[in-house]
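Limitations

Structures in this collection are predictions, not experimental determinations, and the ligand pose is part of the prediction. Treat each record accordingly. The example that follows, with zinc ion as the small molecule, is included so readers can see exactly what is and is not provided: the inputs are given verbatim, and the output is the predicted complex.
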Amino acid sequence: MKCLLILTSVALSLAATIPTSTKVDYSGFKALRVTLPKANKSTRNIEAEIEALAAHVLNPGVTEHLDVVVAPDQVDALTALVTESKVLSEDVGALLAQEGELAPVERTYDFGIQAVPSETWFTAYHSYADHLTFLNDLQAGFTNQSEIITTGTSVQGRTLTGIHIWGNGGKGSKPAILIHGTVHAREWITTMTTEYFAWQLLTKYASDSSVKALVDNYDYYIIPIVNPDGFAYTQSNDRLWRKNRQTVSSSTCVGRDINRNWPFKWELTNGASTNPCRETYKGQVAGDSPENLGLRTQVNTLRDGKGIRLYLDIHSYGQYILWPFGYDCNVVVDTDAAYRSVGAKVQSAIRAVSGTAYTIGPSCSTLYATTGASVDHIDQVGNASYAYTWELRDTGTNGFTLPASQISPTVKETWAGLVSALTSV
Ligand SMILES: [Zn+2]
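Predicted complex:
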């Protein structure tokens, strides 16, 4: 007995010395919006120097203002590189606390015999496993007009999982509405928003004739988390992780930016990074992330089937509605007028719900240059009639770590935007 006690106390003391989590603690870290020096004469790459000092660059690619999260002991070195800096948050750790605890799925029988997730799902954030449970539970309530779909496998072997929803024409009978969420791992509000789209389409089909019409007109393919490894990593290790978890032999840095990895115009410079340590690392070869391979294959299948009427890549933050092109600010897509018309309707519909103001325009000239981004590829190679990037709330106050209290208002106003798009395209 004494021996057992000693062993137990040894085990306890060992447990106390081994860290139980390697999760980054952002307590005391600051979020800053810094103004970059105008065209510096030297060959110094100030943005790269800032990125090396910062824990994360939140909006990599923006040419004037960078939003960064920086450890307290690096603040002085970083601000010395820039012409101006404004504090967005004095304590990123406190922002993270406002996201609340991860909550499990709650079910309700409101929509029929089979219990499906209730609307309280959209009042908290959730674990990766619970997001899969949500999709499975939702689908189980509507087996006649939905199925779980998969579109490839991640670096670490997770399945890219989504839901296919159809109406009275039957499965696969209508043009596709393709929606991706969470390609950037830290953009948690986009998981919630794309799931809300699926939840609304299915749970309102029987009771709301306008929703029924939307579902009867199209086949929906919604993948709430297209970067599952990155998303899991934001929950286990680093809340502000962006990329996937792919390695390269030439570097100890991890991760490709899946949204700089699409093949169309991938080879051009200035819209992504060739450095594996940067937030926008494009990969070694066009389309060389397994996630992109899966997504690309699905795009080709839908293109060669009933065609893609609308593609939405849901991101945060910034409140933008963006369309091609990202790769060149001087090239105008031939359907620019149609893109602008639908974009303006979506902008109005979102603003009408709770006043949230979005900026609209072509991706490169409105926000920044991007090569290998989804919308350029899916417009040009996927032959989508419309391909948009939506950057959801906010404009930097909370950034990616939107408080739990803003989930419900965000998903509702964005749903209004989706309804507007679906009735306009
Ligand atoms: Zn993003």
